[in-house]
Amino acid sequence: MNNRTIFLVCGMLICFSTRAQEQKPAIGISGPEKWSSIGFESTVISDDGKHIMYAIEENGNTGITQKALIVKSIASDWQKRYEDVNAFSFKFSPDGRYAFFKKSDGKKYRVDLNSRKEEIYSARDDDNLLIQEATEEYVFSKKAEALPSPDPNLARVDVWGYEDANYANPWRKRKDVLEYDYVTNRSTGKGFQLTHKNEQIVQIKGEWAIISYCEGGDSPTEKFWNDKARVKYYLTSLIDGTRTFIMREPKSEGTTYIQFSPGTGYIVIPDNANLSYSCFNIKTKRLYDISKGKKITRRGAGHMDVEILPMDFTFLSDSTLLSGDEYDLWKLDLRGDVAPVNLTNGYGRANKIAFRTQKVKIKTGERKLHREVNGYIINAFDTKNKSWGFYSLKNLNGSNPIELSMGPYYYGGESNPILKAEGSDVYIVKRETAKESPNLFATRDFKAFKRLTDVKPEKEYNWLTSELVHWTDLNGKGCDGILYKPENFNPNLRYPVVTVIYDGFSQFLNRFPFYNVNSLGHGNFLPVTWLASNGYLVFVPDITLRRPGKVLIDTYNTLIPGVNRIKSFPFVSEKKIGLQGASWGGMQTNYIVTQSDIFAAAHSAAAYSEYISSTGYSSEISPDYNMPGKGESFGGLITEVPENYVSQSALFLAEKVTTPLLIRHNRQDPLPFYQSLQYFRLLRRLGKKAWLLQYDDSEHGLQKGKSMTDCYLRISQFFDHYLKDKPAPKWMTQGILPDLKQVDSGLELDPGVEP
Predict the structure, then answer these.
(1) Cα radius of gyration rounded to whole Å, the chain
(2) In this predicted structure, which of 28-42, 126-140, 586-600, 640-654 has the lowest mean pLDDT?
(3) From CA 342, how far away is CA 242, in angstroms rounded?
(4) CB under 8 Å, gap of 24 or more: what pairs does 441-449 form?
(5) What is the pTM of this model?
(6) Is the dihedral of CA 357, 360, 361, 363 positive or negative?
(7) What is the distance between the alpha carbons of residues 530 and 516, in angstroms, rounded to a whole number?
(8) Confidence of residue 129 (pLDDT cuts 50, 70, 90)
């Protein structure tokens, strides 16, 4: 073999090796050009449990979605794809032999699942597709009453007083008419007016309606201190209009979620003021407490570390209610005769496993607690390692649940129903991980699962992996967070990090982070998927502690030790750590950059910069976005603890900022635009490195399309410059003159020039 031959062979081997190791492409700034996913909401299973039908949705960065239908055997590998099928326009025959579907051209098809042949089908609609429900016994309508016309001889003046039922709103538009609800019985033809001024229908069931009345009209945002803004509830007969007073809404900022029991024997009212469930007996017209001193609460989501009553309660029967605290499930007697029973026997709290009811969707309806061969199926989330799975309850008398399966998956939580065949013990679940798209699996016992679909568009890109990170905050409390890494992660390299803050997200450790659907950051800041795909590590810490008066101080106490934990990893470039947050996360970001220089760059979107004017100011776009509150977040009213409002307002601390800050806030945002404008103007006056982006066609988030793509590109250029040492773009180094708006983008890089 001569030298030339050896050279050619070596060259071929090197070329082959290079191609074998060639990296998959990163996700583009506008997202994947094409993305396939399963339309689980429209998935159906045949009554005999032998076949399923589901839609494949093709969602590209243009926003156009195409639907294809897959008809598939559960037992074998047989399946067939049909294009251009109408969403939800498919079902099985009761005996499971035929599959029916309708295409976009209106033609109906029938597939014989025995012979696997299809034909155009011309039978009546109610023989195959979309059978309509029976008509209601009552007819509801609206009638308008004209209000008096304005008198041109009188002054156009607003008159407000301290005893008004609602707050002063100079932008409220005057109504020309008032609309009222009427009800008519189809059988008798008799009817009457159901609602009157300042009244609304809350719920209608059977022959009853729950009607709410609020003297302050349709925005009772002051109920926690203004008695006139508290809602009154009435039980009204749809037969003769007879009314019975139920209760007055308690003084609480929590939502009152009042509703009928299934058989309309009772009305359940969560009382967040007293943290107890109340019940109204329709027959006896008596209101009483059914919690009987039991504490059935969860930590409140959002900005406060407070306890609230769960609002996702359900019914086991007309006289039995099912709810859940932070960990365990409870059974309550609506008759008020029996004390609440802890269905999971305290097992959840003892083992830090959160149990929730599992929705099971059958053709005859949806059941939130379904009995199968192993017992009652319940949803389980292990708060320690963030795994998801299923347990069973042998009975409803209070016993330890039995584990069926747990693992590093995400099953959609309690909100995603499981499908069950009507005449078989076959169940269909949707399962996903951080690096695998949601797919369908079949099971009979919730222990063994058979994969039915293999949708995996993420395999075309450099995707990501996720892992759990632990640390201790400055209050001595253990904390959790997620660290996302690129799929092609190399532990021998040192990576820049972007930290994303808002609330708690570690429960989604194993959830698939779509780029353009339900993505963390979608519409407000760079998505986790783009960052990881393009060579960043992404740190998402749980920021859940919200002590009154210290909401932002607690963010600092949690975040900074978490970032220090990330900095300790040998593969992290400790001087190249960024921060981004939007809305509440933007408020946190604005504050954090005044308290620490640990971040090399930060991006804040749609956020407050100070809380003095925010206690009472309302914008014309959203007059009730933020009204004077009780002051839970800041430990009291502004007159009681003004120092708390000042000490946590980024505007008053702007001189301490050393981190380059990119702010995005749109004029049409219901959160007032001036909040970011005043912060930017002051930072600019102080000579701080700051930029402000404003998009005309967007509100609190970004309008999908050119505005979102433009903003994502600018944020990526901003982080690339400060975290990857890439050249800055001209919009950062030279700016864009107002007269050149939408003429000069300034996106060209400006090598050698430091902004």
Answers:
(1) 29
(2) 126-140
(3) 38
(4) 442/74, 444/373, 445/373, 445/374, 445/404, 446/372, 446/374, 446/377, 446/389, 446/390, 446/392, 446/404, 446/405, 447/404, 447/405, 449/405
(5) 0.90
(6) negative
(7) 10
(8) very low
